[in-house]
Amino acid sequence: MSTIPKIVILGAGYGGILTAQRLQKELNYNEADVTLVNRHDYHYFTTHLHMPAAGTDSIEHTRVSISKLIDEFKIDLVKSNVQEIRLSDKKVVLQDGTLSYDYLVIALGGEPESFGIPGLSEYAMTIRSINSVRLIRQHIEYQFALFKADESRTDRLNFVVGGAGFSGIEFVAELADRIPKLCKEYDVDPNMVNVYNVEAAPTVLPGFDPELVDYAMDVLRKKGVQFKIGVAIKECTPDGVLLATGEEIKSATVIWTGGIRGNRLVEAAGFETARGRVKVDDYLRAPGYDNVFIIGDNSLMFNPEGRPYPPTAQIAMQQGVTCAQNVVSAIRGKEMKKFVFSNKGTVASLGKGEAIASAFGKKYKGWVAAQLKKLVDIRYLFTIGGIPLVLKKGRFL
Amino acid sequence: MSTIPKIVILGAGYGGILTAQRLQKELNYNEADVTLVNRHDYHYFTTHLHMPAAGTDSIEHTRVSISKLIDEFKIDLVKSNVQEIRLSDKKVVLQDGTLSYDYLVIALGGEPESFGIPGLSEYAMTIRSINSVRLIRQHIEYQFALFKADESRTDRLNFVVGGAGFSGIEFVAELADRIPKLCKEYDVDPNMVNVYNVEAAPTVLPGFDPELVDYAMDVLRKKGVQFKIGVAIKECTPDGVLLATGEEIKSATVIWTGGIRGNRLVEAAGFETARGRVKVDDYLRAPGYDNVFIIGDNSLMFNPEGRPYPPTAQIAMQQGVTCAQNVVSAIRGKEMKKFVFSNKGTVASLGKGEAIASAFGKKYKGWVAAQLKKLVDIRYLFTIGGIPLVLKKGRFL
C-alpha cells in the first residue's frame, strides 16, 4: 500500500463520471490517487441512446471523450475491460493488467435482463451501448435494402420492440418517426411496415400517471405503433417472436428493452445479489466492505415506501455525488453522509416534439414536456461539461 | 391491329430513353402509338451507380423519374416486368398484362455474367440497379456495425471486388474513398480494413492506354487498394473467395463486376445469341425480324477491326438515336440509316478528384480527367433533361 490511498472507480457512466468529477474537485493535491477504468475512451448518454439506435440523431450527439470531462493530471484514465473484482485481495483484474485499491467505487453498467425467455439473448438486440445502437440502426436500414432486393420478404418490414418501459417507449417513438424517412429513401409503401410494441405488464410506462400513459399511447398509435400490452413474449426465434397468446410475429428485427439486471461481475465478486444488484447501506457501501461503494445499475436501494428505486440516470448521478463525498470523508476520517434520493421528476420522450413529464407534482404533455426533456439533457451536459459541452453536443431543434 | 402502328420499347435505360425521346420528337400527331415499358418508374444513370453503391453519393443523384423525361401525352408509360417476348405473335407478356406491337425496340438491360464461377450468383453482390446498390451500400456499412459488436470477426473488414474493368475500377476507387469515413464513424483502425481488387485478366481496364493504366493503379494503390491481377476467382463461398492461386480471402462482402451478358428474355425469345447478345444488322434489326430492333446491352455489333463493341452507355445512346430514326423511316416507308459508332472518348473515374481519359486521340489524367468525367455526366443530363435536370441532379463538387 502506497502512502496515499488509492481510489479506483469502475465505469464512466452517469455514476462513475460524477464520482470522478467530484473527487477531482474535492481532493487536495496528493491526498489520494484516483483511477477511472472504462471499456471505452468515451462516456455516453444512455438516456439518449434510443435516438441514434433509431437513426434520428447521430452517435456524436450521444457521447463525449472522457478526457474532455476529467483532468488527466488529477485522475488516471485506464481504458480496459474489467475481468474480475477480487474483494479479498483489494484488486481489480483488467483485460491487460491488475489494479489494487484502498477504496473501490463500482459504477459498472447493468446488463439486459431476459427473464429466461428462450432465444432472446441470441436473436434480439438491446439498446445498451454505442456499439449496440450502431448495430441496431444499421440492421434496421439493412432490412429495407434487403426487402427491395427480394420483395417477397415482407417480414423484413416488421419491427418488434419488446418492453414498454422507458427505453421501449422512447425507442419505439423514434423508430416510428424514422420509418417514413426510410420508406421514402427506399421507395417502400409505409403501409407495408409494421412497428409492434409488446409488453407483458398490463400497462406501458408503469409508474407514470394513467392520464399521461393514455396520452403517450395515443401519440404513438397515431405514429403507427401497434401495441400488444399484457402479452408476454414466449420465445424469440430467428424468424421473429412467439407470443403467449399463440400469435407469431414474423420479423428479422427484435429489439429487447424489457429491463436490466446488475452486472455479472458484481455477482461473481461474491456479493449477495437480487437480480444482480447489491443492497447497499445508507452510505452506498456494500455489505461487509466499508471500502467498497456501489452506485448506479448495480446498487439496490429502497424508497420510504419500501419499494426499490428503478435504476435511472438521475439516481446514479445523485449517488455519484454522495459517493465522492463519502470516499473523501472516509479518507479524512470524517463522518459520512446518508444518501437521500431527491426526485426531480421524470420525462419520457415520444419522438419529435412530443413527450410526457411529471415534475414538482405536476403533469406535462406535448410540446411543453418535450422542452422539459431538452432542458434535462442540456442540464446534464452542463453539469458534466459546462457550456462548451452544451454547445457541442446539445440539440437545439 | 389498330389503324396506326404500335411501337413498344422495352426498357428505359440509356438506349430506351433516347429512343423514346427521339420518337416523341420525330413522330407526327397520331402517326404511331408509342409505349415505353420499364420495371421502375425511374430511369437511372448506370455509369453513376458505383458512387451510391460505395455510399459516396446519394441515390437521388443517380436516378430521375421517367415522367420528367418523356411527355406522357405522347408516350404511354407502363411500369411492369417483362415476362416473355413472343415474336411469332408480336406480343410482349408483362407481369400484369400483354402488349401487342408492330415495331418492337428491345432495350432491356443485361445481366451479370458469372462465367460459371461456383457460388458467385449466390454469395456475391452486383452493381446493376438502384436496389442492388442500396443493398451494397447498406451491406458494407452493416459490416462495420457488426464488427464493432464482435471484434474477433476481422474478416468483416475485408472487401473483395471481383473484376477490374470499368465498373470494378470505378467502384473500388469510391470504396477506397469511403473507407476512411466509415472507419471514423465506427472507431475502426483503417489499417484493419482490406480492399482487394481481383482480376483474372493480365491487366486492369483492358483497352486503356498502358500509361494511363499504370497511373490508375498507382492512384488506387495509394488509396489502399490491394490488387490481385492475373488471378482468377475459383469459387465464391459464404466465407469469402478462393483464388486460383490457392489463396483464400475471408470476406463477408464480395462485389462482382466481372462482366455482363445479354438479358435472358432475349435468349428465351428464340434469337440466336452469343453470351445472351444478338448480332444485329447495320440498321439495328434482329436477324429475321425487320420490325424488331435490339439496342444496348443485348445487341452485338463489331467494329471495323472485327472486334465486338463493349456494351457502354455511349453506344446505347447513339443506337437509341439511330433506332428511333429507323423506326420512323420504317413507318414512313423511307430508307433506313446504317448505325455507325462515333467514339467520343472514354473516361474512368478513380474517386474524388482523380480520373483517366482518352478522348480525341489524347490522354488525360488527374484533375483534368476528373473534370472531363463531370462534363460527360452533365452532358448526358442535358441531353435527356435539359438544364433543369443538370441543375437538379448534377454534382458540382
From TrEMBL, chains A, B:
The keyword Cytoplasm does not apply. The keyword Membrane does not apply. GO terms for molecular function: NAD(P)H dehydrogenase (quinone) activity. InterPro entries: FAD/NAD-bd_sf, FAD/NAD-binding_dom, NADH-Q_oxidoreductase. Its cofactor is FAD. SUPFAM superfamilies: FAD/NAD(P)-binding domain. This is NAD(P)/FAD-dependent oxidoreductase. It comes from Paenibacillus faecis.
